[in-house]
Amino acid sequence: MSDRFPACSPRDIARALACTRRDFLRSAAGLVAGSAVMSASPFVFGATARKRKVIVVTFGGGARDQETFAPDGQQNIPHLLQELAPRSSFFTQVVNRGILGHYVATASLTTGVYETLNNFSAVPPEHPTVFEYFRKDLNRPISDAWVVAPSNGFNRIGESGYRSYGPGWGARVILPKHLLTAAMSGATTDYEHLLRDNYETPLYAPQLGGTEFELEQLEMVLKLSVEDFKAHAKTLSSPDELSLYIARQLMRQQAPSLLWITMHDIDVAHAGTYSLYIEGIRRTDRLCAELWKIIETEPEYAGNTTLFILPDFGRDSDEDAGGNGFQHHRTGDPASRTTWMMALGAGVREGVVYDRPMQSTDLVPTLGCIMGFTPTLAQGKPLTEFL
Fold it and tell me: Alpha-carbon distance 352 to 36, whole Å?
């Protein structure tokens, strides 16, 4: 048990972590208590609902408070704190009660159900995804829902195996690393830093399938030649930078209404090098700010887009004897399960912090309220702050 929280239950520790974020955000970013500014819903449906766009970014790979929102970690997230938090509604206590593996946790985020699939299996989620609800309920074309995923293990994230949804109703999935490998035709020497696929199981090579984006569609859909794609990739320093580059092209050329981007650089922590873990946090912080600037400047997105940023989960506490600290997320302790969520953009109250607990499965029902679809099988509840 941590010396900081002696003789406390996991719930007490989670609440204390949330209070730390709240107090820090109020002092450093000037946010106010959400309950003080509650009013009628800022979201308006009807004619404007079809123009609404939502982008979800997972601050993926798992980052703890002590390297982010704790006082000693604030230097690692200057963009979140100084640029994005003051414009956001910030939720301090997001609890993940599911399996702490990156694919299965992301699948749970996309379905609103705690999925129980094998984290290292090439299978789709068992329950309908947010993309299927969105497309089927609102009769949207396949070009209106996309996923940019970090790893080949995420190739099935776009659509579930649920019979009445599933094939034909999901999102298109782009795997930038796989796309780059195909573009290089095996000659990957200059791009090895962009192609590391899985930090937990480096020998894992899933079978691809589903609605994966293919190399021959690069020029037709993203208006990029293979040579231009390779040339720009050579200027980038990480897989997440490659993902943001692809996402920007996708926004410019296809302007999807529902876009899901999963960052993953932070997961290098599994390699056991603390400096690389910190570098991943700082890069993800910067890329989130860059994405927000893209949203503000792209004509199809400016003024009508709501951006959600949240981790898939955290990492082990240093004080938990059963874990490995920053390196892994094995214990299921509060540091691993208690994270945060930031929402900003169209319809969001700015500069507000909400302390009440929410579950990660609440995201999909909340997106349903914003965009006008009904996720009937989701276990979570829509956040009242968006109603």
Answer: 9
Structure tokens at 351: 């500069």
Residue 294 belongs to domain spanning: 10-36+44-386
Whether residue 4 lies inside any domain: the answer is no
Residue 187's identity, in one-letter code, is A
Residue with tokens 């056991």: 272
Report the alpha-carbon distance of residue 156 to residue 103 in Å, rounded.
Answer: 10
In this structure, are residues 69 and 77 in contact, taking their beta carbons and an 8 Å threshold?
A: yes
> Are β-strands 338-345 and 305-310 bridged in parallel, bridged antiparallel, or unpaired?
antiparallel
Structural domains counted in the chain: 1
pTM of the model: 0.89
Backbone dihedral angles phi then psi of residue 2, each to the nearest 5 degrees: -65, 140
Q: How far apart are CA 328 and CA 343, in angstroms?
A: 27
Distances (CA, A) of 152 to 167, 173, 377: 19, 10, 27
pLDDT in tens, 273-319: 999 999 999 999 999 999 999 999 999 999 999 999 999 988 888 87
Radius of gyration of the chain (CA): 20
The answer to whether position 182 is within a domain reads: yes
Contact 290/245 with Cβ under 8 angstroms? Answer: no
Residue at 2 is within a domain:
no
Q: Per this entry, what is the length of the chain? A: 387
Model pLDDT for residues 346-380, shown as the tens digit of each residue: 999 999 999 899 999 999 999 999 999 999 999 99
> What's 97's domain CATH number?
3.40.720.10
Is 3 inside any structural domain? no
